[in-house]
Amino acid sequence: MKKDLKKDYYQFCIVESDKKDGFRLKGKIWIEGEDRTFLGMGRAELLEKIRKYGSISKAAKAMNMSYKRAWELVESMNKQAKSPLVITQIGGKGGGGAKLTPEGERILKQFWEVYQRFKEFLENEIKNFEF
Questions:
Q1: Which residues contact 113 (CB under 8 A, 6 or more apart)?
Q2: What is the β-pairing status of strands 86-89 and 36-40?
Q3: Entry pTM
Q4: Distance between the two ends of the chain, CA-based, in angstroms?
Q5: Dihedral sign from CA coordinates of 25, 30, 31, 33
Q6: Which of 43, 78, 103, 124 is most exposed by smallest CB count within 10 Å?
Q7: What is the C-alpha separation between 59 and 67, in angstroms, rounded?
Q8: Rg for the chain (alpha carbons), in Å?
């Protein structure tokens, strides 16, 4: 039976607090740009995988995503950013590849910092709830 990738993807994107009295706070965080989503959990994870594997194709495979979809996401981020986040090199004898630019590294670092503060916010807020 095929996994419901859409459901799994949306669960992956949710940030949640620890439980308090059986309850959790949950939220999603992303950066919206002119072309809709600029960067969110899924795109940040794609950038992480591109950094790890040096390839959009391998990154897509690791995320159970089509190469076409991964390429579209990279193009969208590159188009919206002041300068490209990912650069590619056309294949040849050694094959092609992809890597994060310094701008990509900077934006990704900033996103994870905001993500961490958001998670801390949820953790702190759940402590204030009276159930």
A1: none
A2: unpaired
A3: 0.83
A4: 39
A5: negative
A6: 124
A7: 9
A8: 17
Q: Give the separation between CA 77 and CA 103, rounded to whole angstroms.
A: 11
If we measure between CA atoms, which residue out of 12, 67, 114, 115 comes closest to residue 75? 67
Tens digit of pLDDT for each residue in 62-91? 999 999 999 999 999 999 999 999 999 887
For 28, the token pair is 């999603």
Does CATH number 1.10.10.10 belong to domain 5-128? Answer: yes
Among candidates 39, 32, 18, which has minimal Cα distance to 104?
A: 39
Angle (CA) 96-102-104 rounded to 5° is 75
Question: 56, 65 in Cβ contact below 8 A?
Answer: no
Residue pair 97/12 in contact (Cβ under 8 Å)? The answer is no
Q: Where are the domains of the chain?
A: 5-128
Residues near 5 by beta carbon (within 8 Å), at least 6 away in sequence: 64
Nearest Cα to Cα of residue 94 among 38, 54, 39: 54
Tokens of 68: 């076409």
Residue type, 52: K
